[in-house]
Please model this.
Amino acid sequence: MEAKILRAPSLPRPTGTVATLHRPWLIAALVAGLVLTVLLSVGVGAVAISPVEVLAILGHSLGLTDAIDETKTVILTTIRLPRVCLGLLIGAGLAVAGAAMQGLFRNPLADPGLIGISSGASLAAVGMIVLEVTVFQKLTGLLGYYALSLVAFGGACGTALLVYRLARVAGRSVVTTMLLAGIAINALAGALTGLLTYTATDEQLRTITFWALGSLGGASWTTVLTLLPFIMVVVLGLPRLAKSLNLLALGESQAVMLGVNITGLKRRIIVLATLAVGSSVAVAGMIGFVGLVIPHLIRLVAGSDHRRVLIGSALGGAIVLTAADALARTIVAPAELPIGILTALLGTPVFLWMLINERTTT
Model:
């Protein structure tokens, strides 16, 4: 009897010629693009600062160059650099969380908001704005401006925990149930948010509207340093799960046979995605499409290997959100366009193009 040779299954490859290429230059190109985007973004505004001047100011801060224009130095170090750094952190966090969620659900159209993280944060923030509860008043007295961020982050964490608990079946979390629970919680949170908005005063409505549209206008070094540990944990932690996500693409049963702890993998991805999205929404409000579109575009160029997709998504998200913020600050100057509107306007056509391209290649 002829012996059969058992072969390890190969990872699924996305359809389309472009998607199957490795593109080893991609990460280096993204890093170069990120540096260029930062240099251009910090120089855009009512007072223009050239890339040469930006480098000179940074060099002067390190004691490497002579003194330069004090006004431009203050503008760069106090206003623009914190804002650009905040955009880098939020863009990287949202995009890498989106890439991980797409890998978890094995669906390129998934995003972090799918399990209700964003809607939970929004509900908590709107509740704090509208409801004059003693606890909220005490938090505002203690933390001031940052009380709203803390409450929004707590809402995101609470929603993610609820969805995860609802998805537990026979001691393990089921992805399909998690998806359905996320849809239900999203609908409930949206309805409650709408009810609170209906009862809000005119002043509260303005606050809710500006917060819901998203903005990096409240950036400061304190905000950046507060957000930094959350995003760094996510950006450094999720790529470590890339190998497990590659195996999960074969299916849960095959991944288990290959030694993947499915329950632990799901728990870590949910926790890290919640940290990224919850902290980002708490600081900057609702910013859509970054976690949905960027990972998909990276996957089209780099292939389906999560070792490249996760790192590329973090870099790509940082580039896109930083560039979008620079455009939002200048397109209607001296006013400022909420960045959530801009990402939706730019992201929707790209998303529709991806759907059409996916349909024509299958």
About this structure: The first helix runs from residue 26 to 43. Residues 23 and 302 are 6 Å apart (CA to CA).
